[in-house]
Amino acid sequence: MAEQYVGAIDQGTTGTRFMVFDHSGQVVANAYEKHEQIYPEPGWVEHDALEIWRKTKLVIEEALSNADLGPDQLAAIGITNQRETTVLWDAETGKPIHNAIVWQDRRTTDRVETLRDEDKVEMIRGKTGLEADAYFSATKAEWLLDNSDPIKLQRSRPEDIRDRAAEGEILFGTMDTWLIYKLTGNHITDVTNASRTMLYNIHENDWDDELLDEFDVHREMLPEVRPSSDDDTYGSTSASGFLNAEVPVAGALGDQQAALFGQTCFDEGDAKNTYGTGSFFLMNTGEEAVDSEHGLLTTIGFQRSGEPVQYALEGSIFVTGAAIQWLEDVDLIDNPGQTEELARSVDSTDDVYLVPAFTGLGAPHWDQRARGTIVGMTRGTRKEHIVRATLESIAFQTRDVAEAMEADSGIEMQSLRVDGGAVKNNFLCQLQSNIIDSDIVRPQVDETTALGSAYAAGLAVGYWETLDELRDNWQVDREFTPDDDATGVDERYGRWTEAVERSKDWARDSGE
């Protein structure tokens, strides 16, 4: 029998990747394709779900072909995905009724403010562990039901979408659900993605009727919720489909929970931070859902078949890597690799602070109307200062969350496991260590999001038998400890908090 591997679909905000891993957790195949970012109005962000499905098939085929692997060599496929991004589709045609609304989208800000005015924030937080925010799926689904054009469903008569949704003819999903449906024909999500919808009660582990009524989302639309690593599997690809093989789809986790799993943070107190478009700091809190009093989210970390749910505290930072992309957009850099050189070329930011609140502020501030702000500029400010301030903003936002995390959990963090594209920047890793006064540990395999979903799927089908096998796979690439440049960090952090305050509530008169 040909050697077996596990595949992982990593469906992200800017593109889709397919990776194949061997038993030691090493990458043996890899392919990536970007998809279009659609901005219909200021503050709105959409994706074409059909384009994402086409790109998903393409990267699977490319990765297998490039590595000269056959689909029969895949023991299982796992899925990890951009969370909260929401798509509704016609169950008969399999076509979306509208573009997917992306997690970054702010079009439902007014709806969230209505929830606050009606004193429903605590009710939502108590059931879901989430802040009432346009970030999550509930208001996106509500908007789609209210605003999608039934004529675009390409049916013989323009039926009322809500009536069809009540009959289960319009289906709801986050991107994991969409891909599972297209791969297997089954309407399924996992507990981690369900926990990000603002419709799921994380204590009862079920869709919540009160929340469904609040957002007028019908239970019949919703997917079945399964463990993140599912011994029963979610179904298999079709022998007559694009792979011409039956491959079980056996694991799914939202991207940040997948990174937690891929970093082998299986024990209470283990923590990781992923630096992607945004940054997402998660700490495993075990079987206890720890309520946050400092602006963090309580979320589901993962669940294995037949085992209790493992919970996590999360600090969601909306813009970190995207701030570096912004530097490219405004021609301050030609590529992300330049940031390290430019930041090292000056001794400091010269008291310049950049707050990248381009889509509001997430944890622990939760200000939907905050906007990007640069303060402290003088006639002597150069692009090097702004670039360094951008990198510092990533590290300072992480400290905001780290302090909240320690206050909520009562656990003093000694080290933080990091992953994501930005951690290739050694200057940023050292800066982060200095600013949070903790060791920063970077693993050899930095694609921990895809690896986590592969681990979940592989465990489900017996490719890996125990968590200890996965722990043995985890290897350190480099460790960063606080150095002499940590001097004066607390004073600079104080100035950072002043800059954050200046960014808040800026968009209140903008009509967004």
From TrEMBL:
<comment type="pathway">
    <text>Polyol metabolism; glycerol degradation via glycerol kinase pathway; sn-glycerol 3-phosphate from glycerol: step 1/1.</text>
</comment>
<feature type="binding site">
    <location>
        <position position="321"/>
    </location>
    <ligand>
        <name>ADP</name>
    </ligand>
</feature>
<feature type="binding site">
    <location>
        <position position="256"/>
    </location>
    <ligand>
        <name>glycerol</name>
    </ligand>
</feature>
<feature type="binding site">
    <location>
        <position position="84"/>
    </location>
    <ligand>
        <name>glycerol</name>
    </ligand>
</feature>
<feature type="domain" description="Carbohydrate kinase FGGY C-terminal">
    <location>
        <begin position="272"/>
        <end position="460"/>
    </location>
</feature>
<feature type="binding site">
    <location>
        <position position="255"/>
    </location>
    <ligand>
        <name>glycerol</name>
    </ligand>
</feature>
<feature type="domain" description="Carbohydrate kinase FGGY N-terminal">
    <location>
        <begin position="5"/>
        <end position="262"/>
    </location>
</feature>
<feature type="binding site">
    <location>
        <position position="84"/>
    </location>
    <ligand>
        <name>sn-glycerol 3-phosphate</name>
    </ligand>
</feature>
<feature type="binding site">
    <location>
        <position position="13"/>
    </location>
    <ligand>
        <name>sn-glycerol 3-phosphate</name>
    </ligand>
</feature>
<dbReference type="Pfam" id="PF00370">
    <property type="entry name" value="FGGY_N"/>
</dbReference>
<dbReference type="InterPro" id="IPR043129">
    <property type="entry name" value="ATPase_NBD"/>
</dbReference>
<keyword id="KW-0808">Transferase</keyword>
<feature type="binding site">
    <location>
        <position position="13"/>
    </location>
    <ligand>
        <name>ADP</name>
    </ligand>
</feature>
<feature type="binding site">
    <location>
        <position position="277"/>
    </location>
    <ligand>
        <name>ADP</name>
    </ligand>
</feature>
<feature type="binding site">
    <location>
        <position position="421"/>
    </location>
    <ligand>
        <name>ATP</name>
    </ligand>
</feature>
<feature type="binding site">
    <location>
        <position position="277"/>
    </location>
    <ligand>
        <name>ATP</name>
    </ligand>
</feature>
<dbReference type="InterPro" id="IPR005999">
    <property type="entry name" value="Glycerol_kin"/>
</dbReference>
<comment type="similarity">
    <text>Belongs to the FGGY kinase family.</text>
</comment>
<feature type="binding site">
    <location>
        <position position="135"/>
    </location>
    <ligand>
        <name>glycerol</name>
    </ligand>
</feature>
<keyword id="KW-0319">Glycerol metabolism</keyword>
<feature type="binding site">
    <location>
        <position position="135"/>
    </location>
    <ligand>
        <name>sn-glycerol 3-phosphate</name>
    </ligand>
</feature>
<comment type="function">
    <text>Key enzyme in the regulation of glycerol uptake and metabolism. Catalyzes the phosphorylation of glycerol to yield sn-glycerol 3-phosphate.</text>
</comment>
<dbReference type="GO" id="GO:0004370">
    <property type="term" value="F:glycerol kinase activity"/>
</dbReference>
<keyword id="KW-0067">ATP-binding</keyword>
<dbReference type="InterPro" id="IPR018484">
    <property type="entry name" value="FGGY_N"/>
</dbReference>
<feature type="binding site">
    <location>
        <position position="17"/>
    </location>
    <ligand>
        <name>ADP</name>
    </ligand>
</feature>
<dbReference type="InterPro" id="IPR000577">
    <property type="entry name" value="Carb_kinase_FGGY"/>
</dbReference>
<feature type="binding site">
    <location>
        <position position="421"/>
    </location>
    <ligand>
        <name>ADP</name>
    </ligand>
</feature>
<dbReference type="GO" id="GO:0005524">
    <property type="term" value="F:ATP binding"/>
</dbReference>
<keyword id="KW-0547">Nucleotide-binding</keyword>
<dbReference type="GO" id="GO:0005829">
    <property type="term" value="C:cytosol"/>
</dbReference>
<feature type="binding site">
    <location>
        <position position="425"/>
    </location>
    <ligand>
        <name>ADP</name>
    </ligand>
</feature>
<feature type="binding site">
    <location>
        <position position="13"/>
    </location>
    <ligand>
        <name>ATP</name>
    </ligand>
</feature>
<feature type="binding site">
    <location>
        <position position="321"/>
    </location>
    <ligand>
        <name>ATP</name>
    </ligand>
</feature>
<dbReference type="GO" id="GO:0019563">
    <property type="term" value="P:glycerol catabolic process"/>
</dbReference>
<feature type="binding site">
    <location>
        <position position="14"/>
    </location>
    <ligand>
        <name>ATP</name>
    </ligand>
</feature>
<feature type="binding site">
    <location>
        <position position="83"/>
    </location>
    <ligand>
        <name>sn-glycerol 3-phosphate</name>
    </ligand>
</feature>
<feature type="binding site">
    <location>
        <position position="325"/>
    </location>
    <ligand>
        <name>ATP</name>
    </ligand>
</feature>
<dbReference type="InterPro" id="IPR018485">
    <property type="entry name" value="FGGY_C"/>
</dbReference>
<dbReference type="InterPro" id="IPR018483">
    <property type="entry name" value="Carb_kinase_FGGY_CS"/>
</dbReference>
<dbReference type="GO" id="GO:0006072">
    <property type="term" value="P:glycerol-3-phosphate metabolic process"/>
</dbReference>
<protein>
    <recommendedName>
        <fullName>Glycerol kinase</fullName>
        <ecNumber>2.7.1.30</ecNumber>
    </recommendedName>
</protein>
